[in-house]
Amino acid sequence: MSIKLVVGLRNPGDTYASTRHNAGAWFIETWLKACQKTFQTEKKFQTELSSLTVPHGLCYIALPLTYMNHSGQVVRALSQFYRITPQEILIVHDELDLPVGCVRLKSGGGHGGHNGLRDTIAQLGSADFHRLRIGIGHPGDKTKVHDYVLSKPSREDYQHILNAIENTLMRMPMIVDGRIQDAMNELNKG
Fold first, then answer.
1. Could you say which DSSP state residue 2 is in?
2. What is the pLDDT of residues 65-84, one digit of tens each?
3. Any bridge partners for residue 48, and if so which?
4. What pTM value is reported for the model?
């Protein structure tokens, strides 16, 4: 089944733009720049929205204007309006449980403590969407997680993440085409 909606989870605004929690947005912004596409603000969906013409039709790409904890509202509104099922959705997000710069593709599963995923699952009433998980590393102590995700990575870590994003972009045609298992095999072997 092809992907018809790709959402990069983030906190909006300049204050958060360069924080680890916005790694999903960094991915989307890099992808659209490579495709020479831009966003339009869609107030009714509380999102910045773009689309790409792909073999199966249109694939919508979104960056929510809501905070991370309310990301699911945007995902639900877009999926209802465009009649997109959870299985046709890819959520791109930061992942504490992966080393910095490691990217993994996953289908379904729980939220793993990620508030953006938690709200998306609650709003969709399903966890059956795909996730592109961008490793940001873990601070080593769960009491430090909140401050860690809302802080900027070191220059070296940021470069590792950008390199991983560039590497993953080569697989986006395969992912959007619905060849999730093939893309998973390629991404997850690294």
1. -
2. 999 999 999 999 999 999 99
3. 41, 63
4. 0.96
One-letter amino acid at 82 equals Y
Domain total of the chain: 1
Q: What is the CATH number of the domain that holds 9?
A: 3.40.50.1470
CB contact set of 13 (below 8 Å; sequence gap of 6+): none
Relative to beta strand 57-64, strand 89-95 is unpaired
Query: Which tokens hold the place of 131?
Result: 């996730």
Q: Residue 185 corresponds to which tokens in the numbers above?
A: 């095999």
Catalytic residues: 21
Query: Which residue in this structure is represented by tokens 């309310």?
Result: 70
Domain that holds residue 108: 5-188
Contact between 69 and 76 (Cβ < 8 Å): no
Q: Hey, what are 100's tokens?
A: 């910095």
User: In 106-129, which positions are buried (b, 16+ CB within 10 angstroms) versus exposed (e)?
Assistant: beeeeeeebbbbbbbbebbeebeb
Please report the pLDDT score of residue 107 as a whole number. 94
Confidence of residue 55 (pLDDT cuts 50, 70, 90): confident
Question: Binning pLDDT at 50, 70 and 90, where does residue 25 land?
Answer: very high
